[in-house]
Amino acid sequence: xxxxHIVVDLGFGDSGKGTIVDYLARxxxxxxxxxxxGGAQAAHNVVTPDGRHHTFAQFGSGTFVPGVHTHxxxxxxxxxxxxxxxxxxxxxxxxxxxxxxLSVDADALVVTPYHKAGNRLREHARGSGLHxxxxxxxxxxxxxxxxxxxxAIRARDLRDPAVLAQKLALQRARKIDEFGATHxxxxxxxxxxxxMRLLAxxxxxxxxxxxxxxxxxxxxxxxxxxxxxxxxxGLLFEGAQGVLLDEWYGFHPYTTWSTTxxxxxxALLAEAGVRSGIxxxxxxxxxxxxxxxxxxxxxDALVGSHTAEPHNGTGRWQGAFRKGWFDLVLLRYAxxxxxxxxxxxxxxxxxxxxxxxxxxxxxRAPAGGINPRIGIVADGVLTSLHQKALLTDLAAQERLTxxxxxxxxxxxxxxxxxxxxxxxxxxxxxxxxxxxxxKATDKRLRSLLSIAA
Amino acid sequence: MGGGSWDSRAYDDAASQRAxxxxxAFDYSQKVKSGSARGIHASLDPRTVAGAASPLAGQVVRxxxxxxxxxxxxxxxxxxxxxxxxxxxxxxxxxxxxxxMDVIVAKAGIKDVQILVGAIGDTHSDDYPFQVGxxxxxxxxxxxxxxxxxxxxxxxxxxxxxxxxxRFAADHTATDAWDKRGKKGYLFSMGDEGPWPxxxxxxxxxxxxxxxxADESVESLIARAQERWEIFHLFSMDGGYPNDRxxxxxxxxxxxxxxxxxEDSSLICEVIAGLIHMLESSLDAxxxxxxxxxxxxxxxxxxxxxxxxxxxxxxxxxxxxxVPTQRTPKGGGIERI
Lengths: 453, 337
Hints:
heterodimer, A: alpha/beta, Adenylosuccinate Synthetase, Chain A, domain 1, 2 domains, 10-stranded mixed sheet, 21 strands, 34% helix, B: alpha/beta, Rossmann fold, 6-stranded mixed sheet, 13 helices, 17% strand
């Protein structure tokens, strides 16, 4: 019996994980969606069969299904402020009090307005060197928690306003040390000026502490052992972002502060005593996408002109939404470094009918030869990238980044969706789920018969 | 991914929340003592009547109701002694009880718990001998907890007005758990002294703002409250009278094995969650403490509190010749076995 599904994006994100989680919540009977990476920067769009649309950021994408809970594990970064408008929007769509269906691990790291201020002021100072940050303070909170552990706020602290105020005051002092030289009046940009004003206002510490404490009153803060209780009624693990943005396996420095592979979910399941009945589902789009800066070998404006994107816009902090051709080299890499999906959910299958489809099957080897540590070269083309030996070796990832930024793909034309699926299955795992649109009713299970054929 | 879809409005929403509830009440007790605030906090006044939306509108009653998100509400009342003999314990309890909801949900596995907190003093010496909040399905009871005035009086007679808790439970509560499912709630009082023998007509009028027909004995109040509530008294061994035999014997006479000795008041949430888990699951104390993941000194302390209750629970009922009852899990009243 399947006790847990893990849904992970095998690309750069935006593959449609939310719609897959919503579909699984409706069809598997699992009662809890578990977030196991990232934070409130996630934007998982789900449209219900009756046309209601919500962009899930912290609440699980199964929330439209009555009674389905959300559990934010210790690997998730909690943004209490952002919970409030998200819950209000869900309430407007008829999802009553979603806070009543929310539990947060006591060890989860909390993102505060001081992290966001630091994040935004830093991105601004960096100017043109944007690396695709969302401006949500996720990386800032992670870096600070490592560099200054005594200032890090964990979910457990949300029950104690005195502790909150104390730690927030320390966070404020850190940020003033770093950014204090500029005055709000000297900054023309209204968003940045607001960040400066927040830092300048000493009384804001108590207000923020009170806000965080009060927002946290509405959900449960539980020890890690609670997941074992939730596991009895089925778990859906909802990944955020994509394997190609992984903090260790992504293309440094264009990565996220989060492990985006199956690893965290598997660790949580092991702790909860779930050892069997785990299905690892990799989600891919029928063409490639990427938010923000960073290598994207198959980028092509032609793809964008043939595909609509109602829910993905240009973020102030992360740059434009980019599109390109399906990339089998990167898919093979993602499948390898993520530990391997058992099956694939293919989304935006409808694009196969509107797009003159082609897929990248390899990259042309550069004239000057190629560093053998990058990948395997045969007949003048590179078909797969090497997985580095040492997890924390970021120099290896920088080499990959440099290579990918100039890589020239070798394309194969595909005739239709079935042809694309054959390519995907040769590189990864059986394609078991096809998504033709954002609603659960747009999903089609591929029968084992058709997989065999 | 990518976006922060719910960020831009977040501050505004928080600001409007702030405007609605104004400044926090972290130090209400301090404010009363320093004179900058006066009287029992509005959220804790026992005389508050049910609102217009309630079927019991106008009555002095606290309601625990089911909702779509909490379809099987289980009410839990936690009232603690705030008199002088308790020393620093009221502050400890006020801090620790903050996580009562989280601990009951996580450790006892009760999803739809509703918590009401309050404080018991002494009608003979305190200005505010009974402060009581509302049933809350989330941690908003924390706000009420922090508004409790810790008077720290008490007359040194080793007696407090605990019987007000039973008057309250018997006459001033309404629960869907009982009305719809025949399910009793839980009432925990915490303290280190014995109860005054009666609640007088005058006290009922002064504290609850209603007329009682006659003075009522604590025995009678407990008997009436027990019709709808599982009643426990948690005796603080770190309070003023850990070895006072008269106090212990009096409680044992009133509540039997449900007079529970708590060695360490800071484990109050774990003891409460453990007792609820034990009654809801019919497991023994060893298994309950194991289930709750408690180890070391805290595990031992909680087990010591639980063992007497677990040991005597079933045999006592049988020995007294009454028929043990078992409720069906999905409502439908009472089923005899």
